[in-house]
Input
Amino acid sequence: MTRLVEVEADAPSASEVDRRTFCKLLGGGIVVLVTGGSSELSAQQRGYPEDLNAYLRIAEDGRVTVFSGKIEMGQGVHTSLAQMAAEELGVELDAITMVMGDTDLCPWDAGTWGSLTTRMFGPALRAAAAEARAVLLNLAAERLGVAREHLVVSRGVVAVRDDAARKVSYGALARGQQIARLVDHKAVLKAVQDFEVMGRPTKRLDAGDKVTGKAQYAGDLHRPGLLHARLLRPPVHGATRTSLDLSRPKAMPGVVVVEDGDLVAVLHADPEQAEAALAAVDVRWSRPEPTFDTESVGDYFVKNSAPGEVRVEKGDVATVLAASRAAGVPVFASTFRTGYVAHVPIEPHTAMAEMLDGRVVVSAGTQTPFGAQARIAQALGIDEKSVRVLTPFVGGGFGGKSAVGQAIEAARLAKLTGRPVMVAWTRAEEFFFDAFDPAAVVKIASALDREGRISAWDYHVYAAGTRAAEVLYDPPAARVTSSPARGASSTLHPFAVGPWRAPGAGTNVFARESQVDIMAAAGKADPLAFRLRNTSDARAQRVLRTAAEAFGWKPGVGPTGRGQGLAVGIDSGTYCALAAEVVVDRATGAIRVVRVVAAQDMGLVVNPAGARLQIEGCITMGLGYVLSEELRFRGGEILDTSLATYTIPQFSWLPQIEAVLVKNDELSPQGGGEPAIVPMGAVIANAVFDATGARLFRLPLTPERVKAALGG
Amino acid sequence: MQRTIPFRLNGKPVSIETDDQRSLLWVLRTDLALTGTKYGCGEGLCGACTVGVNGQAVRSCATSLADVRGKDVVTIEGLERNGQLHALQQAFVDHDALQCGYCTPGMIMNAWALLQRTPRPSRQQILEAMEGNLCRCGAHRRIVAAIETAAGQGGAA
Ligand code: FES
Ligand code: FES
Output
């Protein structure tokens, strides 16, 4: 039996043909496509077929496959998306197969970042699964001769409610069908209280493969005739090549040499031979003069930035500040600084490319498979349809794998050599070509009234953008200025900058929450009480109270000597408050973070175990940019190109971590991958102040800076 | 120099004819197609490439093939027994001790070697032994918990 049923849901007819063709390509079974409902999703839509952004398929053998343009890089969406589909469909979690980040099979997607996956893609997927379940129930009703209301679904089997022997499996229902459905976003979804799979702690679906070494990352792929490439790199950014002699590598056995404009590469079946060939290249460079370095970058930004754009304006800040000064009320003026921070995924950027049937097929560790597809097509001067990008497991991204340089290099080399090519950046290349979290400066002038309320807040951020720069507190006069806008600032930086976990948010919350602490101490107020008094934001109050309670916060005016700190931030719709305890070694300036407690309100929690893991990950990773990580550079020269000098958190740094999820089921799921890293700078700096009385204005809080602040 | 290098790999004898100065890491990953052992830095600084050699944790990126002649090499692929996960592998799954999973094989092999010589390590011993293995995703706490669990269940086997 074959039939084609198409149900329209205000779909534009222009894409109708596409959709039909598309469904045919997928073969038999039941396919549900979802059109975008939210504006953010619509804005991301493009390509073929035009208007869909999620789909799932129930094949004729009953297997459920979910196709998503998102990728798995450790954040656990592979599992949480499967959970959502399983929940709405009424099947076991392990009945779901996930296909992710394949530009041929998956709906177009802008990229995996900003904790958007669960929030944006989740509702679409749940709608698709709910529709599929409705289709299956209708088929079952027909098959069993029973009205839909009398049917129940459990583990992929539809049965008559009071007669469990009369049943039929999803597989049996899908057999011989060729059904395509199109739904929009607003399908009726299961209510929270009916959840069986979502909202429960679940082990990761990918864990088994990851503990046995079976999980494949881009570098693990192999093809007959595969060549490993090493590329010629400039010694500093902005250098120009003045001479090049490739005769020595060309004479080495088994070495393939490619020279194509800016691209010079040596390739060999053995990566170590390729490395040796690269060392044999004779090249000379001329280097540009450096304009600024690790120490002078802050002043350089302030001097060379555009006046800035006012992003928030409430009341007349200048007048209130002037009035405060005139009345002898102190005005707090602070300058906060942060440095360039690297992503340092343990898997460096890697991609394998090959030519297949006239198309270039690239498997890449990337956060943006569709972006990579477009960039590769552009670089090769071919149609996007001639490029397929697949995304195996990604060994950490944190924003850094939105840049797809390695995928373009692999594609170019595969096309030039006609052989499969692996481009796996070395650790030094990873440091050199990373798109760093930019160095930034925040200047704040603020004032308190006589009741201890914040009366004015004048905030100016340079180079970090305004993510998480909201005022949060309730001063009657406030202004937030940003210059230059992030992204438009690339000419300012001597090398690439880009999204880091919660781009710029850590800088902004470090500045705001440090400044709030400064005012609390000056106003002789407990930092928790001061915050609660100064914000009417109920979600902020709730996470602050929850964190303080879980921590066992003892009220006191800083510095109490106890070494306790507090900070709160908002990111991706999620509120996160942290409370921390530190011990400072006054002789060495070393900070030991003893304990961090997080209270997070992220709306409805799909997978609590996953959410906790993300919070812990954020806190642990956050210790790096707070305590040690700052890329040293001189102009375009990167001085830290090894893990020997750029230190990331290690086992001995581990604090005790507790994560409390604040229940807020009325709110749809919000981002969970980044919020907890955002308040880390402030919470530790505030705790250091509480321990020692020394206020630090620059991240990272290195031992030298701590000692200097202590006057040592 | 081109030589024949015999050693034991995951319990079975193997013999490879190649330049014996090549690194164990790349011989495992290319010639032997054992890609569970990962490249992270190539400088002995991250631990992603950790394997067991005669029961010791060794950075395979900093080990030449000549160094393992006649020795007993164990990689992540060699821990399962009859389709059963090793106690450490099971504990990593149970404790959610991974996120992206790229550091995981090296973490497990490093812990495996620790449990070979110290079947019941203290928390401090675990932290010290694992210090040189880097994880960017921040799975550290769970990794420690997983190792403690595995140790409690005879994870040295
Ligand atoms: S790859 Fe061997 S220690 Fe990093
Ligand atoms: S789990 Fe990603 S590096 Fe450890």
Summary: Residues B 39-42, 44-49, 59, 61 surround FE2/S2 (inorganic) cluster (ligand 1) (CB under 6 Å). The mean pLDDT of chain B is 95. The first helix of chain B runs from residue 24 to 31. The beta strands of chain B are 2-9, 12-19, 50-53, 56-59, 72-74.
